[in-house]
């Protein structure tokens, strides 16, 4: 999510074009680093979302160059496979203030949700990464943002980043109690829906605007795979101008993958 001051890749970062001859997206790699951070503040955003502000001097060189970056939250509990880790989006970063903000959806009983539900100022958390950034230019003729509640932090950050005059369509499957007001200078066409079926129906009913656009989608694995097929196979959207990510998967305790 957007920093209070612009963040760019450090000079040591490696930059390469994303796969696909038509893509204008860049992949930037960052030096992987673990940071021991302390909770500075906890805020209740909606009935099922908590915002945790972390702080620490080690954030002085933290880099988050894209709205859908991911850091690893590393918890004390151990599993048979080693330390328990979960992927989360940096909602906001302020390097000058040494602050990193993470938003937690309070659904289920996983280690991240359990930790966030009890987090208080003074608690500590180990954070690793981000390993890299997938930088999507802001100057497309239009942008489509689609997903469920797990995508809200990334969507909110992207909307804050986009410049005045940018055209954005957002299709968001979020319970009424957790819907929020977004801050953006862009021209936003926002559609709230209830359930994956309504999300896919809204995508099928959507008439994609003219010009070069980019679609970003994140949420449950099966729903995002279906959404990608609708946009690329049914609507003919450029397969090099879409990023669809599975932030979770029904029946799996921990799942994160980019869908091709």
Automatic annotation (TrEMBL):
Residue ranges annotated for the FAD-binding FR-type domain, each copy included: 32-137
SUPFAM superfamilies (alphabetical): Riboflavin synthase domain-like
Segment forming the signal sequence: none
Listed GO MF terms: oxidoreductase activity
A Pfam family hit: FAD_binding_9
Bias kind Low complexity: ranges: 1-23
CDD domains membership: siderophore_interacting
Region (Disordered): 1-26
Family, similarity comment: Belongs to the SIP oxidoreductase family.
Name of the protein this chain belongs to: NADPH-dependent ferric siderophore reductase
Organism listed in the record: Roseateles chitinivorans
């Amino acid at each position: 999510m957007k920093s209070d001051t612009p963040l760019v890749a450090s000079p040591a970062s490696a930059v390469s074009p994303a796969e696909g001859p038509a893509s204008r997206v860049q992949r930037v790699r960052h030096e992987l680093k673990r940071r021991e951070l302390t909770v500075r503040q906890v805020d209740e955003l909606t009935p099922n979302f908590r915002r945790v502000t972390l702080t620490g001097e080690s954030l002085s060189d933290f880099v988050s160059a894209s709205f859908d970056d991911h850091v690893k939250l590393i918890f004390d509990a151990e599993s048979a496979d080693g330390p328990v880790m979960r992927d989360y989006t940096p909602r906001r970063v302020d390097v000058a203030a040494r602050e990193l903000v993470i938003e937690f959806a309070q659904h289920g009983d996983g280690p991240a949700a359990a930790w966030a539900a009890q987090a208080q100022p003074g608690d500590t958390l180990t954070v690793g990464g981000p390993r890299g950034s997938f930088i999507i230019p802001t100057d497309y003729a239009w942008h489509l943002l689609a997903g469920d509640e797990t995508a809200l932090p990334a969507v909110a950050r992207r909307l804050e980043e986009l410049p005045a005059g940018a055209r954005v369509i957002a299709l968001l499957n979020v319970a009424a109690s957790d819907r929020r007001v977004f801050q953006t200078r862009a021209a936003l066409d926002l559609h709230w829906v209830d359930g994956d079926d309504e999300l896919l129906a809204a995508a099928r009913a959507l008439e994609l605007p003219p010009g070069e656009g980019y679609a970003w989608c994140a949420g449950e694995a099966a729903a995002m795979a279906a959404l990608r097929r609708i946009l690329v196979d049914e609507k003919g959207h450029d397969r090099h101008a879409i990023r669809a990510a599975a932030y979770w998967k029904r029946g799996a305790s921990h799942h994160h993958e980019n869908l091709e």
